[in-house]
């Protein structure tokens, strides 16, 4: 499979799974807009991708702000002329019992894990319909089997799964494929922040999830639209 010349947007591309996805797509020759809030993280991802036969641009944005999402989609179309793939990877994982879940924790989880996905899909929909492109939303095993303290996080990711399924139905009319990838525990900064003692032998690597994203972009997966692919060790 080759993505040479395809235009991909990856949110949360500055580190972890988003960085791994970016590097995977770059190795396949895709042109990539890398999106995150931290310029230094984006710069490091771009540096790591420079040896690949692709063109990468960075775009600093807060994807919880619909205006900023509209602007990054417009920037991508202006820079590359089209959009073929949208990977909604940016996410947050608050860990708290329900009695300790604050208003701010709830609002942030909904903004990043729910609203940002809607904003990006909505803004990119026309461009993706022209290219008959693909959307991949990052979900989680927590959508079906949440740890204690992950009630809010798991619920937002269950929402991602239902949204993915529903959007795939709309996408069939215009040739857009929509998938979700639900990782188990992945060796990232986010995991270690919440679960510092989690056994390393039971964690996936970010590139394992990037490989699943890459696989779903193969044309042989086109009839799987609407499904969530779970990846766990």
What are the low-pLDDT stretches, counting only 5+ consecutive residues below 50? none
Helix and strand string, N-terminal first?
EHEHEHEHEHEHHE
Number of domains as seen in the coordinates? 1
What is the level-2 CATH architecture name?
A: 3-Layer(aba) Sandwich
- Helix-residue proportion: 40-55%
- In CATH, the homologous superfamily goes by the name NAD(P)-binding Rossmann-like Domain
CATH top level assignment: Alpha Beta
Compose a concise summary of this entry:
This protein has 233 residues and is an alpha/beta fold.
Please, could you describe this protein's structure?
The chain is of the alpha/beta class and 233 residues long. The protein has a single domain (7-231), classed as NAD(P)-binding Rossmann-like Domain (Rossmann fold), CATH 3.40.50.720. The chain contains seven helices and seven strands, in the order βαβαβαβαβαβααβ. It has helices at residues 16-27, 39-49, 66-80, 103-131, 151-171, 189-194, 206-216; strands at residues 7-11, 31-36, 56-60, 85-88, 134-138, 177-183, 228-231. It has a seven-stranded parallel β-sheet with strand order 3-2-1-4-5-6-7, sandwiched between helices. Helix 1 (16-27) links the parallel strand 1 (7-11) and strand 2 (31-36). The longest helix has 29 residues, at 103-131. The two termini are 25 Å apart. The mean pLDDT is 94.
Helix-strand layout with pairing:
Layout: E1 7-11, H1 16-27, E2 31-36, H2 39-49, E3 56-60, H3 66-80, E4 85-88, H4 103-131, E5 134-138, H5 151-171, E6 177-183, H6 189-194, H7 206-216, E7 228-231
Parallel strand pairs: 1-2, 1-4, 2-3, 4-5, 5-6, 6-7
